[in-house]
Amino acid sequence: MTLALYGTIWLALAAFVAGEAGKQRRTHPRWLWSISFVGALLCVAHIVIALGHHHHWNHDAAVRETARQTAAVYGVAWGGGVYVNYVFVAVWLVDLWRWRVRPTEYFARSPMLVVGLRAFFFIIIVNAAVVFASPRTRIAGVVLTVILLLIWTARPTRDRAPSLG
Fold it and tell me: 141: phi > 0 → left, psi -120 to 50 → alpha, else beta; which?
């Protein structure tokens, strides 16, 4: 079950990064959106597996464990990270929906909105993949976040626009 728990989130994060890379070109293949969508579903699966297997369907236990882990890292016993994870996957799904249903509007979004969303995603991903990761997987988290930063800071290709070609 440990492989399912951690495998789902690492695959989800890799799919998120692939989706972000796909947004950089006008003619990105439709499967890049699909990969990001599957990643969001894998993130949901990770949350369900964690709640069911690790916390035995006890949400209060999940909040307490999150508070314990947060205290160990940041010195503050705050269990709200559980809810932040729910918001993360919800925002990811809404973002995917907007990309899919209204691509022209999606790619014409305010730069401030794009920066805000990216900052939100980045903070969550860094915490999940680097800060709270095990020492064995932390390097993978650093690589993943560096790739994400490179994608986001690279100059988009001239043909970037709202096609799901």
Answer: alpha
Half-sphere exposure of residue 136: CA atoms within 13 angstroms, side-chain side: 1
User: What 3-state DSSP class applies to 33?
Assistant: helix
Separation CA 148–CA 46 (nearest Å)? 21
Tell me what percent of the residues of the chain surpass a pLDDT of 90.
81
pLDDT per residue over 40-62, tens digit each?
A: 999 999 999 999 998 999 999 99
Contact 40/12 with Cβ under 8 angstroms? yes
Farthest CA pair distance, the chain: 50
Give the Cα separation of 16 and 40 in Å (integer). Answer: 8
Residue 92, SS3 per DSSP: helix
Q: How far is CA 3 from the centre of its chain?
A: 19
The pLDDT tens digits of the residues spanning 99-119 come to 999 988 999 999 999 999 999
The position carrying tokens 């915490």 is: 127
Q: Which tokens in the block code for residue 134?
A: 């095990």
Domain residue limits, the chain? 2-108
